[in-house]
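fold-stage: in
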Amino acid sequence: MNIIFITGTDTDAGKTMLSLLVMHALHGRDAVYLKPVQTGCSDPDTDSDPAFVHRHLPDGLPTTPAQAIHACRVPPKAPLFAGEPVDFQAAVNFVLAHAAWYSWTVVEGAGGVLVPVTSEKTMLDLALETKASILVAGRAGLGTINHTLLTLEAIRARQGSCLGVFLLDPDDATPEAERNENIRAISGISGFPVHGVIGRIDNPLHPPASVLAMIHRVLATRF
């Protein structure tokens, strides 16, 4: 099963945009996007991450945004604290059931890898138990070295399969020299590849070909 689990170094690190770009790169290749646990959402069909992805794909998602979600909670908190308990095994089965039907399954986690889904299971457990390949979204600017290295260390400690890192800079606020310093530090210390920086995307419905080319290279080397 080709399952790509997209995690972040923190909340709002760029997971949803990276998920959208991966879905763009997989256009025409029988791909589905899932957000197993969505928090901070009152209407999954209009204000959720799947709703954003659906609106910015030329053909939309193969499911409705609501169908891309296993558990939806209103409070913007970690799933463990966001209302009714999440059935972790049901979330695993939700991902695997879609992966059995589609050639590619893109799964967006909630927050970072150690965000608790239950009192015993984290987002990293969800990635591991679905045997997904993990792709990390990190910020391009100040503080990203520490946050990204900690994320990669957690994945390595659990022997997760990691595709590497993309740094995101949606406002193009990080100078190129600082971007390059962060890339060298993260890749050099962790041993995982940093595939590049994704800057501002003015039209998410039609992302730059250069950005999609970076993602194609990652997919081509591992799948």
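fold-stage: in (second)
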Amino acid sequence: MTILNTAIIGGGAIHGCHVNALRQIPNVTLRALVDTDSVKGLKLAMNYQCRFYQDYREMLLDDSIDVVHICTPHFEHKNMILAALAAGKNVFCEKPVGMNGSDIIDITRAVEGASGLLGVCYQNRLNPTSLRILHELRNGGLGKMLSIRAVLTWSRSGAYYTDSAWRGRLATEGGSLLINQAIHTLDLMQWFAGGVTRLKGVVDSGELADVTEGEDSAMATLHFTNGARGIFYASNCYTTDSPLLLEIHCEHGSLLLNDNTLWRVTPGERFKLESDAAPDGSAKSYWGLGHQQAIRRFYHAINNPGNTDYTDIREAGKSLTLVEAIYRSSQIRQWIDINN
């Protein structure tokens, strides 16, 4: 098998998940690390025994690099994706793939004309509980889906925003809670139900109003393609990062994800199906445990042309479309139709 040389753009907290995942994939070498902070970047590159670049455009001139991982602030994703694809690289990008629907259109066009692949990191789709939910729904034993409710209550301090100038700014983050944290929950909801046809939502800011231009809380009602209804609530104003609470109500029972454990609940019975706990029994981090699997699937697709078992631009665009629709709905206080 051909060795694939990889570069990571961005040395922030999330890049470590990518490094750890790459170390587990055979015939993959971390060749370069890119960061605008030369002191931090050089230190990381020395630790990883790879090259350092301060400018990602210079790195893209290296013909030996096959895959580029983008772990940078939201507003940089689109231009970096377009440049990397134009340079003939495969690209794996952290969510969101862009800032808005216009970005989705531009990136989709670039992907259609590119030789490389674009994968987007929605690692929570690969949590054991998420995969089991999808299996249970496809199995059909619980009957028709009637509704989904999801509650996400996390904690973000003022320092989280003030220590990173791009966070909480509309021009650089694209919003706040929805586009950064809760987009994963919206993605799971629409994925389980096969898409959204319309929604109405409200966003607001309370505890974090003084440190972010975006929202710290949001709620929405969603109508799904399969006829089910969704209710969604999220906030960064809690005092800890509580595990996602998600319940799918069907004709003959429910699937309940609570405290990282999935239960099938039917009249008179509550049966444990799956858990997201780590093999050593520790609780999962709020990033989930799916980064390794998401990255592994993307590299498998690179090595096996025609394989589509990864989150592509079409799938990644769906949750970003929902985020943008909730923002718009909150502005005009009306239902928004979604074009899937």
